[in-house]
Amino acid sequence: MTALLGVLTSLLSTLLSSPLGRAGVLALAALAAAGWLYLKGRSEGREACRLEGERDVVETIERADRARADADRRNGVDGRLRDDDAFRRD
Q1: Cα–Cα distance between 16 and 32 in angstroms, integer?
Q2: Any idea what DSSP says for residue 80?
Q3: Per-residue confidence at 54, pLDDT binned at 50, 70, 90?
Q4: Cα(76)–Cα(63) distance, rounded to whole angstroms?
């Protein structure tokens, strides 16, 4: 384990000592940062989409409940006759 650490340290110091090595390390760091930002945005977008879908479902259920309650209120009035549905029975 110590030998592997020594080899990695030696390789890193060799890379950082040359201008080409520094440019490569910088490019690798930039790619890693861009990948991290992409993955972070993707996960946040997925979560936002899921929450919006849940909100839509809740709103649809609430709208249906309101419509059902309105229909019950309309049909519950004593003086109001039910709609004629003879055309459906014919």
Answers
A1: 18
A2: P
A3: very high
A4: 20
The answer for 83, left when phi > 0, alpha when psi is -120 to 50, beta otherwise, is beta
Whether residue 90 has pLDDT greater than 60: no
Q: Tokens 């479902």 map to which residue?
A: 57
* 37/43 Cα distance (integer angstroms): 10
Q: How far apart are CA 62 and CA 72, in angstroms?
A: 15
Three-state DSSP class for residue 39? helix
* Main-chain dihedrals φ then ψ at residue 66, nearest 5 degrees: -65, -40
Q: What predicted TM-score, i.e. pTM, was given to this entire model?
A: 0.51
